[in-house]
Design brief:
This protein is an alpha+beta fold. 17% of the residues lie in helices and 49% in strands. Strands 1, 2, 4, 9, 10 and 11 form a 6-stranded antiparallel β-sheet that branches. A 3-stranded antiparallel β-sheet has the order 3-7-6, with no helix packed on it. A two-stranded antiparallel sheet has the order 5-8.
Length: 158
């Protein structure tokens, strides 16, 4: 929980919030979001998302994913994504190529699956950095997977 608090604090200190969004999310706020996801999720809704904060090219999002149908894998061409697993577990694939690739908007592509890549089990407390241009997907969710996702500008070229 301490790492989560530090992650949220670091993200919120970078994010001077949109007036409609807070730049601080307490543990109590997060618990309310989890409860809201459990009560407001439609029966066929796999992924429940709630924007937490916005500032320029930075955005933080709460996501609650249910077991069942996996969400489509994707590639963010201009954003680096940082994911912290708040609760739950599942499989995560990083890398490879998208199957049946299609453009979803000017900066993102999606597919029906991933060919190749590194598949690993993720669980509460895990932290993942997803570089821009890299395919990734959450699959085989065990129960409910709750994450905080922070999108920001692409990483620094070496």
């Amino acid at each position: 929980m301490r790492l989560l608090a530090l992650t949220i604090f670091a993200a919120s200190s970078l994010l001077a919030a949109d007036p409609a969004l807070s730049n601080f999310v307490s543990a109590a706020d997060l618990a309310k979001l989890i409860q809201r996801a459990n009560t407001e999720r439609k029966p066929d809704q796999i992924n429940f998302t709630q924007r937490l904060s916005n500032y320029g090219r930075y955005r933080a999002t709460f996501e609650s994913r249910k077991a069942g149908k996996p969400t489509n894998p994707n590639i963010h061409e201009t954003d680096t994504e940082v994911v912290y697993v708040v609760d739950g577990a599942g499989m995560f694939t990083l890398g490879g190529t998208l199957k049946d690739e299609k453009r979803t908007n000017e900066a993102n592509r999606s597919g029906s699956g991933i060919n190749g890549g590194e598949k690993r089990h993720i669980a509460k407390g895990d932290f993942i950095i997803i570089p821009e241009g890299v395919a990734h997907a959450f699959t085989d969710v065990e129960g409910t997977l709750v994450i905080i996702s922070l999108h920001g500008p692409k990483g620094i070229d070496k």
